[in-house]
């Protein structure tokens, strides 16, 4: 079943590196990701993008090609702005962030998984889900 899932081309949203490394750098990596999210994606300090993201970043989000320039283009073309970063957790070279972002002025819950190497983001997985309008909620919503 899992073999049938592989698409044979572009990186998918499931498969990637499975090895945890740099366990002693967990806190440092969490701090780097939080700074990237706040400084670049929330406060629009786009000139700092390359301080956090490797040139050859691997993207597991089908809308974004590999490479930092493709990631930056996606962010700009879709007016991506992180509104709130709720939780950042990590284990070694992997860091997960749960956030609310605006993508083309629509609110989304975003679950980012980053893999870091030498202090830079080298791989990114993302799951996004639109947040319904408050009038459409049957409970208190995602947050």
Report on this structure:
- A 5-stranded mixed beta sheet has the order 1-5-4-3-2.
- It has a single domain (21-132), classed as Nuclear Transport Factor 2, Chain: A (Roll), CATH 3.10.450.
- The chain is an alpha+beta fold and 143 residues long.
- The protein is globular and about 45 Å long.
- It starts with a helix and ends in a 13-residue tail after the last strand.
- The chain has helices at residues 2-5, 26-42, 49-52, 68-77, and strands spanning 53-59, 81-91, 94-103, 106-117, 120-130.
- The protein has 4 helices and 5 strands, in the order αααβαββββ.
- This is Nuclear transport factor 2 family protein.
- InterPro entries: NTF2-like_dom_sf (IPR032710).
CATH architecture classification name: Roll
- Main sheet attributes: strand count, strand direction, barrel closure: 5 strands, mixed
Overall structural domain count: 1
Mean pLDDT over all positions: 89
Query: H/E series, N to C?
Result: HHHEHEEEE
Helicity, as a percent range: 10-25%
Total number of helices: 4
Low-confidence segments, given as residue ranges, are: none
Short description:
A hairpin with a 2-residue loop joins strand 3 and strand 4. The protein has four helices and five strands; from the N terminus they run H-H-H-E-H-E-E-E-E. Strands 1-5-4-3-2 form a five-stranded mixed beta sheet.
């Amino acid at each position: 079943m899992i073999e049938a899932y592989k698409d044979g081309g572009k990186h998918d949203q499931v498969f990637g590196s499975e090895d945890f490394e740099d366990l002693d750098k967990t806190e440092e990596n969490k701090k780097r990701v939080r700074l990237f999210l706040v400084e670049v994606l929330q406060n629009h300090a786009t000139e700092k993008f390359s301080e956090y993201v490797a040139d050859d970043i691997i993207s597991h989000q089908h809308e974004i090609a590999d490479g930092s320039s493709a990631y930056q283009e996606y962010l700009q073309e879709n007016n991506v702005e992180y509104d709130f970063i709720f939780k950042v957790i990590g284990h070694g070279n992997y860091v997960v962030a749960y956030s609310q972002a605006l993508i083309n002025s629509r609110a989304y819950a975003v679950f980012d998984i980053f893999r870091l190497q030498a202090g830079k983001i080298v791989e990114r997985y993302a799951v996004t889900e639109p947040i319904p309008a408050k009038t459409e909620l049957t409970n208190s919503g995602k947050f």
